[in-house]
Design brief:
GO terms for molecular function: FMN binding; oxidoreductase activity, acting on the CH-NH group of donors, NAD or NADP as acceptor. Belongs to the flavoredoxin family. The chain starts with 9 loop residues before the first strand and ends in a 12-residue tail after the last strand. The radius of gyration is 17 Å and the shape is globular. The chain is mainly beta. It has 3 helices and 10 strands; from the N terminus they run βββββαβααββββ.
Length: about 180
């Protein structure tokens, strides 16, 4: 039997990412998030309407979606728990950025997976800013690819975020992997 839960938000477990983008004067910025999904060459990202990312990400602008691994919890918290409106998180935390070879913004090379994107549209309301973007380039660490350039699922080590209005937690992916299909 199910029980009704009264909470203003709930995140069952989504991958944590760190956005890198430029502010209005062209300086690199970073923000941590966990609200996203991809579909083909598109990604949709949700951020707070009060966030620095909301202020700076609009149609036509470039951004990088950097996916840290479980050894980079410090990077995740540096991008998420200090305000980019009051200080330069990249300088304060000495985050090393790598210039894009593809015309995008600088990204965090230490992250094992990076998606270079172009914002196609945004939708805002009083609480949230939803960013729709085209994935221009997918960059993966070499250890995540086999000799044919195919993704090695067993090597994926992303941080997941779960939480509600009461508590927030980081989780890790399990090493148990099941092939899709054949479970009828």
């Amino acid at each position: 039997m199910k029980q009704r839960v009264e909470t203003e938000k709930f995140y069952p477990a989504y991958p944590v990412f760190v956005l890198t983008y430029l502010n209005e004067v062209g300086e690199p910025q970073m923000s941590t998030g966990s609200s996203s999904y991809t579909l083909g060459d598109s990604i949709v990202i949700g951020v707070s309407a009060e966030s620095n990312a909301s202020k700076n990400l609009h149609a036509g602008q470039k951004l990088a979606v950097n996916f840290p691994n479980t050894e980079q919890l410090g990077l995740i918290e540096q991008g998420g728990f200090s305000s980019g409106k009051r200080n330069d998180k990249i300088k304060v935390h000495q985050i090393e950025l790598t210039k894009s070879d593809n015309g995008g913004v600088a990204y965090i090379d230490a992250c094992p997976i990076v998606l270079e994107c172009t914002v196609t549209q945004t939708v805002s309301d009083a609480d949230y800013h939803t960013i729709f973007a085209k994935i221009d380039t997918r960059l993966f660490e070499k250890n995540l690819l086999d000799s044919d350039g195919h993704f090695i699922h067993e090597e994926l080590d992303l941080v997941l975020f779960s939480g509600d209005a009461n508590e927030r937690k980081f989780r890790q992916l399990d090493t148990k992997i099941e092939t899709v299909g054949g479970h009828s």
